[in-house]
Amino acid sequence: MSYFKFIESVMANRNIEPLRGIKVVEVTHFIFGPNIGRYLALLGAEVIKIEPPGEGDRFRQAAIWGRFYKLANPYFLLQNTNKYFVATDMREKEGREILYRLIKSADIFIENLRAGLADAMGIGYLHLNRLNPKLIYVSCSGYGQYGPLSRFPSFDVAAQGVAGIATTTGWPDLDEFYKLPDYFGDYLPSLVAATAIMAALIYRQHTGVGQYIDISQAESLLRFHYEITYYSLTGREIGKTGNVDPSASPSGIFRTADEKYVAIAILNDEQAKALAKATGIEELEKTTHLERLEPKIIDMLNEKLEKWVSAKTLQDIIEIASLHGFPAAPVLNDVEVTFDKWKWTRGTIEFINDRLYGRVAVVNMPSVFSRIRPRVKWLGRPVGYHNRLVLKKMGYSWSDIQRLIDKGVVGYWDNMIGAVPPPTWDPDKDPVFKGEKDETDYV
Amino acid sequence: MSREEKLQELFKPEGKPVALDRIKIVEISHTNFATQIATALLCELGADVVKIEPTGGDPARYVTPYGTLIEGVGVPYYIENRCKRILEMDYERDREKLSELLVNADILFDGMRPGELDKLGLGYRDLQKLNPKIIYVAVSSFGHVGEIATKYANIPPSDLTAQAYNGYPSLIGNPYLQDKRHQAPLRAGVWVATIMAGVQATFAALVALYWRELSGEGQFIDVAMNEVLSAVHLVPYIIGFFFEKPRGKYGLLDYILYPFGYYKTADGYVAIATPTDADFRALLKILGLWKMEPDWRYGIDRISDDIMRIKELDNAIRQTVARYKTRDLISKVLRHYVMYRKVPFLKLLERHAGAPVVVELYQLRRIVEENHWHLRRSIKLVALSDKTVVLPGSPFKFSGLRTID
Predict the structure, then answer these.
(1) Which end of chain A has fewer CB within 10 Å, C or N?
(2) Residue A241 pLDDT > 80, yes or no?
(3) Is B124 in CB contact (< 8 Å) with chain A?
(4) Whether residue B308 has pLDDT greater than 90
C-alpha cells in the first residue's frame, strides 16, 4: 500500500469527542473570548455563553458590510457554533447567583472583559476560585491582568500597534502601514489561550488542581515578533519590505503570463538548487542561503525570477514547483479559498442543516485527526435562546424558571437585528427554546 | 493588598511545577518553522523536546532576516529552539538510534516532506505498530491525506506561499492607491501563516494527549499550512459562501467596523478603533468633527462594500488626526473619558459619552524599554557571549504553573 493510501485508511475511524463532559462557561464578546469557547465546543465540550439581555454580545451587530442573514449576523453565527445561549445581567445579584451555581459544576470559565472589570463585578478569579478550586479560569485582555499597561483599552488593531507588529507590513516606498487583516490580533491569542487550557486540563487530570490563566493579545504577538530580537542584535529595524521575506531569497509575489499572482520563497540550498534547475538562474547554485540573503542579491534574484515567472502561466509554475520541489503557491481570493475542493474533502468547510437557519456552509477546526472528530453541530442562537433549557438542566423547576423570566433576571433579545430569531420562527413549535429538548437531540 | 499586588504575587513562577512534566517529544522538521514553533510552545509548557537534525545541522539555522546570526544561528531558529535538546544524526547510518528515539516519543512532530519518514521505515505506519500510544503530528503544505496531498507532496512549505494560498495577501494594502505596483497583493510582514499553523498544531497535539490520558489511544494528526490561517480566521469563508464575491484590498478600512486601523499623526502613528456607536461619536466630538455626526451616526452607515462612499469620512478623520501630535491626541481622549467617569449623569444627557480606543504605534525601541513587558516577563534581556539581546518570554501565564523560556 502506498503511504498516502495507508494514511487515508487510518483516517477511516474518526468519531471521538475528547472534551465530552467538560463544562465551560463564558462571559465573552467580540472574537478573542468567543473563539476559545468555539474551539472547545467543536471538541464536544458543553459551552454556555452568558450575554446581557437585550442586544447581547455587541458582535451580533458587527455584520460584514452591514448585511444580515435571516436577521442574524452570519459572522456571529459561525463564531459561536455549538454553544448554549443564556442571557442574564452579571451586574445584578440574581444574575450572578445563576453564574455561581453554574460555576460550582463547571470545569472552565472564560472572560474577555476589560482587565479588572470581572473582579469589580464579583465574578473575578479570586471570587470564583472559592466556589470551585478545580476551576480553570481564563482571562483574556489586550495587555494582561496586571502591570502598568493592563488598564489600557485594547482591540485587535490596538494590540498589533502596541506590540510593534503594525509597522512591519507595507510597501517600502510608501509612508503607510497596514494592519494584519481578519483580526489576527484576536485569533492568535485565542489559540494560545485554548492551548493553555488544554495544558491546564492535562495537569488537572493528574493533580486535581485548578488554574488562573492570563492571556494577552499583545504578549501573544510579541512572542513571535522576531524583529525585536533582530533589533536588539543589530540596532536596526527591518520595517516594511513589501513582498520580500528577508529570511528567504529569492522571495516575493510575482505576476504570471496569464495575469495571475504566484508566491515563491526559497528557504534553503536544496530548494535553491531545485529552482535553479527549473529556471536556469545560475547564481542560485553557486551561492549559499546565507550569501543569498544579502539585500542586493535578493533584489538581483527577484528580478530574474520575476522575468521567468512573467513568461509562464500560474498552473505551469505550480507543476514545475511540484516536479522540482520548491515552495510556490497561487495567491487566492476569498471565493477561491472557500470553494477549493481540497478543503471540502478535508472537512475544514462543510455543509450542515441548522434547525433555525437551514443549510449553511460552516468552518471546522483546521486539523484532521485519526480518532477525534471536531464537529459543527449548530449555529449561534438569538439572545437568551437556551435560558429555559439550561436552567432546567441546572435543576431549576419550571415555576422557578418562569419566576426568573417574569422578574427579568433572565431575559431575551430586544428588537435589534442580530439579536433576534429568524423571521419565520415560531416559539410554540420550538421544543429546544421551550427547554423540552436539547440541541444534541437533533444532531 | 491591592488587586495589582495580589495578581503579581499569584503569578510569580518561582517554585511552581510545569504542566507537561515527563512528556517526551521528538521533532524532525528541516526548514518547516510551524513544526518548530509547535514544539517550542510545548517546551515552554515543560515537555522534554529532542530536535533531530541531519549531520552538519538543519538548514533552518540559516533562515534569518538578511542573514543575521545570533550564537552562530538565525534569529527565528534561536528563539524557537532555545529550550530543546538538539541531536545531529545521519538518518541512514544512525537509523537504529533514530528509530529508538521516535518509537519512544509520546508525541512526534514530523515537518518533513509527506512520506519521507515512511520511506525510512519511520513513518506512522511503522511507529504505531511498535508504539500504539504514539501521537504523530504531521505539518506540511497540503497535508498527508487525500488526492491533492499526494499530488503536491513535493512542494515544501514556506510562510509566504502559505499566506498566498490562504488568501491573505489579496486583502492587504490601500485600495485608493493609483500606482499599478501598489495594487498587487501584499504579504504580511510577520510569519502569520507559520505562526497560526504552529499554534494550531500545538493545540491539536495537546487535545490528543488529553484523550490519550483518558483512553490510552494514540493517533495521527494532519495539519496543513495552506489552510490553517484562513480557517482560523473564518472571515474568508463567510465572504465566499454568503457573499460569493471576493473582498479585494480593503487595507486601511475594515469590513465590520469603521474606524478600525492606523492613522498618521503629526509626529507618528496611532491605532484607532471605535467598537460602539457611542465610542465613534465620542471620537467625532474629540476631533471636532461633530458636524459630520448625522450622516455617519450608526455602525451600518460607516460600513459599506462601496469603498468610495466611505472615503469622505475617512479623509476627514485622516486629515484631522494628522494635525495632532500623538501624545496630545491620546491625552485628549483620556480627558474625555475621565470626564464621563467623574460625572456619570452626563452619559444620560449626551450621545457622545464613549471611549474610543486610541493607542500609539510603538516603535521597537519603545517596546524594549517598556517596563510593563519586563515586569510580566513578556520579553527579557539575556546576556550572550558577546551581546545582550532581547528575547520573547512565554505567552502562557498560569497561577499554579511555571513556564520554561
Answers:
(1) N
(2) yes
(3) yes
(4) no
Asked whether the beta carbons of A309 and A317 are under 8 A apart, the reply is yes
Q: A4 and B200: CB-CB below 8 Å?
A: no
Does the beta carbon of A293 lie under 8 angstroms from any beta carbon of chain B?
A: yes
In chain A, residues with a C-beta closer than 8 Å to the C-beta of B390 are 228-229, 231-232
**A78: CB partners within 8 A, 6+ apart:** A362, A363, A379, A380, B234, B237, B238
Question: Domain limits of chain B?
Answer: 3-233, 260-361
The Cα–Cα gap between B74 and B97 comes to 28
CATH number attached to the domain at A10-223+354-442: 3.40.50.10540
Residue in the structure block whose three cell numbers are 507559520: B194
Chain A hits for B314, Cβ within 8 Å: none
Residues 6-65 of A with CB under 8 A from B: 6-8, 10-11, 16, 18-19, 30, 39, 43, 58, 61-65
- Tell me which CATH homologous superfamily contains domain B260-361: formyl-coa transferase, domain 3 (3.30.1540.10)
For chain B positions 240-259, those within 8 Å of chain A (CB to CB) are: 240-248, 250-252, 255-257
- pLDDT for A303-322, tens place per residue? 999 999 999 999 999 999 99
Q: Does the domain spanning B3-233 belong to CATH 3.40.50.10540?
A: yes
Q: Hey, is the C-beta of B226 within 8 angstroms of any chain A C-beta?
A: yes
Which residues numbered 32-71 in B keep a CB inside 8 Å of some CB on A? 37, 41, 45, 59-60, 62-68, 70
For A274, A342, A411, the CA distances from A149, given in Å and listed in that order, are 49, 44, 35
What does the pLDDT look like over B172-185, one tens digit per residue?
A: 988 888 899 999 99
Quote the cell numbers at residue A117: 472589570
**DSSP secondary structure letters along B222-290:** EEEHHHHHHHHH-HHHHIIIII-S-----TTS-SS-SSEEEEE-SSSEEEEE--SHHHHHHHHHHHT-G
Chain B CB contacts of A366 below 8 Å? 200, 223-224, 227-228, 231-232
- Grouping H, G, I as helix, E, B as strand and the rest as coil, residue B319 is helix
The pLDDT of residue B350: 66
Residues in A closer than 8 angstroms to B234, CB to CB, are 75, 78-79, 182, 363
pTM: 0.97
Residue with cell 420550538: A430
Q: Give residue limits of the domains in chain A.
A: 10-223+354-442, 251-255+261-330
**Measured between CB atoms, does A151 come within 8 Å of chain B?**
no
Q: How far apart are CA B186 and CA B363, in angstroms?
A: 22
Distance of CA A11 to the CA centre of its chain: 25
- pLDDT tens, residue by residue, A147-180: 999 988 888 889 999 999 988 999 999 998 899 9
Using a CB-CB cut-off of 8 Å, the residues of chain A touching B397 are 144, 213-216, 219
CB A72 within 8 A of CB A389: no
Confidence of residue B347 (pLDDT cuts 50, 70, 90): low
